């Protein structure tokens, strides 16, 4: 009987883990099924480009998983029973329950309105392709001189506001940040951000809390109403709520607590990768939600599963950071080099070279899920149980 591995979610981490498992385990011993709501891979780190009107290359899973024996099930996950080892999904044919022996939970995260009044009703999000497309359609109807306000001073907010300002110089674009502009990068990095924002004509409201989002304005904690025909919310992410509803050990925000193998500390047959997992890095600090964290988590989870099933030795990539890559439109960028625990170093790259560097990183993030065994021999290992059975059969014939 085949060992059933189900991967929930086919973003960067789920796709990478599924492909790596399928190319390193023998298909006679293992069945790998990916459950995802969409039929093609979504480059989430480029959703600000989609919102700005750019078209991305389609990456169907039929091409990504070609030759791997991975089965893709187009369905929405509605529940996980970690004790019974089942997953409930809904597809075009109705409700179905899937049984697993090993589960890779990679459902990721979505936007988080932080409970701010009016956000859910009036703000747009770019954490998903549908959200980015809705914003794109709305922006296309804006007349010159109208206002667009991006809430959130992190990586997503900065990339979004610069992309929009560059693509629509006829609009009045602003950023609202709880802290200072780029206060997480080096002084040289902040100076570069300020210069790019100045050239693009972006208004910055620093150290500003948002108390309410209205249809035509953003209300600050001080009661000021900032005019906003379109408000884009990028202030934080929320993990998918399914894990928190299970018996698995999770954090207060719903992330699955995992060990160094990316296995759930309460249910070792469940592996959580990407934003869905709460993992401690090499420096002793929790990893932040990011592609930079999710990629090594997916490698570790897949290799840990292979090692557990076959008796092989898992090779572990480092769980630490080296850089933060920020696009500032299509022609500008900022590459901030960081310490292993994600603190800014004085060293950075900027300008057009940094923009090309960032583009290379984005292309690599989409390329690796389709080439999960790059740099490693793609040997398909037999499960330990299958090898024992084969040895017993050979001795019986002798």
From TrEMBL:
- FAD/NAD(P)-binding domain: from which residue to which, for each copy? 4-285
Give the classification, highest ranks.
Bacteria, Bacillati, Actinomycetota, Actinomycetes, Glycomycetales
Which keywords label this protein? FAD, Flavoprotein, Oxidoreductase
What is one GO biological process annotated to this record?
aerobic electron transport chain
What is the protein's given name? Oxidoreductase
Biological source species: Glycomyces albidus
Q: Which SUPFAM superfamilies match?
A: FAD/NAD(P)-binding domain
GO MF annotation: an example: NAD(P)H dehydrogenase (quinone) activity
| Cofactor annotation | FAD
The organism's superkingdom is given as Bacteria
């Amino acid at each position: 009987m085949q060992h059933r591995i189900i991967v929930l979610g086919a973003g960067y981490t789920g796709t990478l883990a599924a492909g790596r498992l399928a190319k390193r385990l023998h298909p006679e011993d293992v069945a790998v099924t990916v459950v995802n709501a969409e039929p093609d891979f979504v480059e989430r780190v480029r959703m600000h480009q989609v919102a700005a009107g750019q078209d991305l290359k389609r990456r169907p899973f039929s091409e990504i998983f070609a030759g791997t024996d991975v089965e893709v099930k187009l369905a929405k996950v509605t529940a996980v029973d970690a004790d019974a080892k089942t997953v409930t999904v809904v597809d075009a044919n109705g409700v179905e329950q899937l049984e697993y022996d090993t589960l890779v939970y990679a459902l990721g995260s979505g936007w988080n309105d932080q409970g701010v009044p009016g956000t859910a009703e009036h703000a747009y999000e770019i954490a998903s392709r549908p959200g980015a497309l809705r914003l794109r359609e709305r922006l296309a109807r804006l007349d010159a001189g109208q206002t667009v306000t991006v809430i959130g001073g992190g990586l997503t907010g900065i990339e979004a506001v610069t992309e929009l300002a560059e693509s629509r110089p006829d609009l009045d674009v602003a950023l609202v940040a709880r802290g200072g502009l780029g206060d997480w990068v080096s002084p040289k990095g902040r100076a570069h951000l300020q210069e790019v924002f100045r050239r693009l004509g972006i208004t910055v409201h620093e150290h500003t809390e948002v108390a309410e989002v209205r249809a035509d304005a953003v209300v600050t904690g001080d009661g000021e109403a900032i005019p906003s025909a379109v408000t884009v919310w990028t202030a934080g992410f929320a993990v998918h709520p399914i894990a928190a509803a299970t018996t698995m050990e999770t954090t207060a925000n719903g992330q699955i607590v995992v060990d160094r193998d990316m296995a759930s500390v309460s249910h070792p047959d469940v592996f959580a990768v990407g934003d869905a997992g709460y993992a401690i890095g090499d420096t002793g600090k929790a990893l932040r939600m990011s592609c930079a964290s999710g990629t090594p988590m997916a490698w570790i989870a897949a290799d840990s599963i292979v090692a557990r099933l076959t008796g092989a030795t898992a090779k572990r990539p480092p769980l630490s950071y080296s850089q933060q890559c920020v696009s500032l439109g299509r022609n500008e960028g900022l590459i901030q080099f960081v310490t292993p625990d994600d603190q800014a170093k004085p060293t950075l790259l900027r300008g057009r070279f940094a923009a090309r560097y960032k583009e290379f990183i984005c292309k690599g993030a989409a390329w690796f899920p389709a080439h999960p065994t790059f740099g490693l021999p793609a040997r398909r290992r037999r499960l330990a149980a299958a090898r024992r059975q084969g040895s017993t059969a050979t001795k019986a014939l002798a």
